[in-house]
Design goal:
The structure holds two protein chains of two kinds. By secondary structure, chain A is α/β, with parallel strands linked by helices. Chain A has 13 helices and 20 strands. By secondary structure, chain B is an alpha/beta fold. Chain B has two domains: about 25-70, no CATH class; about 75-195, Rossmann fold, CATH 3.40.50. In chain B, helix 2 crosses helix 3 (about 45-60). The chains are: A alpha/beta, B alpha/beta.
Chain lengths: ~475, ~200
């Protein structure tokens, strides 16, 4: 709890990401509304605040009205990891004012709040549900008078209020409680394909900035877990300017690249199924790990057994030191949570290289092209700032004639683009590799045939005259090694 | 409120009856009744009077309802803009044993100051638009009694320039309020030996 008694302090939730969204926390000594449909996690969020901040000296009061019985609040509350049964009755006081409401109406609630402020001197007071109080007023004028009186009492005391309610969006502009609120946090659901995506949004926050937009969240036994929307601005000053190149793990490709990738570069490896994209990614990760550069394999394609089998075929092991495997299935993946998992894995392992296999699966999981582009762009930016080199695979639908590469702006955010293709020839299937783009670097604009041998990808010396591809390689401008550029 | 009404708040196990069937009150209960009545006579809501009684009893105060005790307590003049804040501050100061006279207007505060000669004054600087700082100056010119300025706005410099001896930003934490009052008075609520020593 923020110590300062003024209006600019913040009450932390105990969840750093949620506090970051709220610019540090909910306004201390303010009236904070948490709104959303039943089952959206409002009560969980309120109790998280309660148990994080309450002390025997400055306790929290949790008032239930006539919406959810106190028994249920407690029964389900105690399944949460943050719920401390020993604090109940000492630092956290639950009370059902539904009976008072039924007998003496809103006046009784005012008197009870008054008594609790004087008797317990609480730091936090929760009213759950606040909206359920509305029918107890004779008319709208009476409810506004009650609201004014309650807000007056609460504002005169250094207590942070959380009012919980099942309000819908149409009530935001009409219900008077929204006008007196210092902060409004909305919990709702978005339909993404066949799945529900829970969304937290700050609709109002007096006194400081906050992270705007729709932030994904989950409710688990640990409480509310929030994944702030990644919307990283370009920050050129923060980018790595290391001079030493990063090997692709394929010596001949390094030579084509002018001695490898720039550190922190994002490389897109695009090609049809079976063309060797995953293998190229494994080259990148395994060679890095063997050079003392830890790597993370974030795969949505193969399960660990399948991937290990592929690696073993080339004499590698994913159990080698410096390799972290992050396997997720795209059918049950939320892109927000996944990006945070990848970032956490990078931080935990000190990774210098990351393989994302594949972007198509990620786009499928995102369900929304805008969110997909936002998250991918932000992930690329963050990796770049950290000096973490990224290799992303993208499956192309065309087996022989690549007609389109820039799906959802992926090639645009990539520094390097490597195109793998099949070459149709009688009785034999040949593979080619083309460097389509290398940002801030010279490269050999050649089309090289490659084979997959027990050692992995081997580039042939032969330079094909006609790769049967419309995506003719173009030399990029040689400029100073700075990122990002367009 | 009648004595019976006041006593209705006492629990049944505190009640005794005489052989003739009449209700008998112990000396302590009579003292408690006097205390509650005295609070109500001073304008304290009955519910708050009983809460005060409970807090005093819990604190082990031995001067609950003694009439002479009230006269030896220090008086604080509370000049507040906000009636809710005034009610809370008055309550918390009374729980510490201080006498409190609360007013919601600067002119009334000046008049009460002359009439009651309080031991100290708490002034909300936003009372009677623009009147708080002027009230500080006036009261400091009239006596050496300490003034504690309070405000929602962080205006401690202006308050001290106007003669205030201390400043607290609202909303007031009860412990901070009581602590500041004790510091400025240099005494607890009960240390005044006689009414003559009030100032």
């Amino acid at each position: 709890m923020t110590e300062h008694p003024g209006s600019t302090g913040r009450v932390a939730s105990g969840n750093p990401r949620l506090d970051a969204i709220l610019g540090g926390g909910l306004p201390a000594h303010g009236i904070n509304l948490v709104v959303g449909p039943p089952g959206s996690g409002k009560t969980v969020l309120a109790q998280q605040y309660v148990f994080h901040n309450a002390t025997p000296q400055r306790p929290a009061i949790y008032l239930t009205t006539v919406s959810e019985p106190l028994e249920k609040v407690l029964r389900y509350g105690q399944t949460m990891a943050f719920f401390d049964a020993r604090a109940v009755g000492r630092a956290v006081h639950y009370e059902d004012v539904g009976g008072l409401l039924g007998e003496d109406g809103l006046t009784a609630v005012l008197e009870r709040v008054d008594a609790l402020l004087k008797g317990h001197r609480p730091a936090i007071i929760v009213v759950d549900s606040f909206k359920a109080l509305t029918p107890y007023a004779a008319d709208q004028g009476a409810f506004r008078r009650f609201l004014h009186s309650l807000a007056g009492r609460l504002s005169a005391f250094p207590v942070t209020s959380l009012w919980i309610g099942e309000y819908d969006s149409t009530e935001l502009s009409t219900a008077p409680e929204f006008a007196v609120a210092d902060a409004i946090v909305s919990l709702s659901s978005d339909r993404v394909g066949q799945r529900e995506l829970r969304v937290l949004q700050v609709l109002k926050l007096r006194g400081s900035g906050f992270l705007s937009g729709r932030h994904a969240y989950r409710v688990s036994e640990a409480g509310m877990e929030v994944f702030p929307r990644l919307a990283d601005p370009i920050d050129a000053a923060a980018y790595s300017m290391a001079a030493e190149r990063v090997s692709s793990g394929i010596p001949a490709l390094d030579a084509m690249l002018g001695d490898g990738y720039w550190p922190g570069a994002a490389t897109l490896v695009a090609g049809p199924t079976g063309s060797g994209k995953t293998l190229m990614g494994l080259h990148f990760i395994v060679s890095g790990a063997r050079r003392g550069e830890p790597g993370v394999i974030a795969t949505l394609q193969e399960n660990p057994t399948q991937l290990q089998r592929i690696a073993q075929g080339f004499g590698w092991s994913l159990a080698e030191p410096g390799i972290e495997l992050l396997c997720r299935t795209p059918v049950d993946l939320y892109i927000d949570q996944w990006v945070y998992e990848v970032l956490a894995a990078i931080e935990r392992t000190g990774a210098r290289r990351v393989l994302i296999d594949s972007l198509g699966d990620l786009a499928f999981a995102a369900g929304d092209e805008t969110r997909y582009r936002e998250y991918l762009y932000s992930l690329v930016q963050r990796c770049s700032r950290l000096g973490v080199s990224l290799l992303m695979t993208l499956e192309l639908p065309d087996l022989f004639q690549v007609t389109r590469l820039s799906e959802q702006g992926v090639s645009h955010v990539s520094d390097n683009v490597v195109l793998l293709q099949y070459l149709r020839q009688p009785a034999v299937l040949r593979r080619t590799l083309t460097l389509i783009k290398t940002r801030a670097s010279l490269h050999q604009p050649q089309v090289r045939e490659f084979t997959i041998t027990p050692e992995g990808i081997t580039l042939e010396d032969e330079i094909l005259a006609d790769p049967a591809s419309p995506a003719r390689p173009q030399p990029t401008e040689a400029t100073a090694p700075v990122r990002p550029s367009s | 409120m009648t004595a019976g009404g006041m006593m209705a708040r006492f629990s049944d196990d505190q009640r005794m009856t005489s052989p003739g069937g009449h209700r008998v009150y112990s000396r302590d209960q009579v003292e408690q009744l006097r205390f509650v009545k005295a609070q109500i006579d001073q304008g304290i809501p009955p519910a708050d009077a009983h809460r005060l009684l409970a807090e005093r009893a819990a604190a082990g105060s031995v001067t609950l309802g003694a009439p002479e005790a009230a006269e030896t307590r220090l008086l604080i003049l509370l000049a507040e803009r906000d009636p809710y804040a005034a009610e809370l501050s008055e309550y918390f100061l009374r729980t510490e044993g201080y006498e409190v006279a609360a007013v919601l207007d600067a002119a009334e505060a000046a008049r009460k100051f002359d009439e009651l000669t309080p031991s100290m004054t708490v002034i909300d600087l936003l009372i009677s638009p623009g009147g708080g700082l002027e009230l500080c100056r006036q009261l400091k010119q009239r006596s050496g009694a300490p003034v504690l300025a309070i405000s929602t706005l962080e205006t401690s410099d202006q308050a001290l320039e106007a003669g205030a001896d201390g400043f607290l930003q609202k909303p007031l934490d009860p412990l901070q309020l009581v602590s500041a009052v004790k510091d400025l008075l240099g005494a607890s609520a009960f240390l005044r030996p006689s009414p003559a020593g009030r100032r």
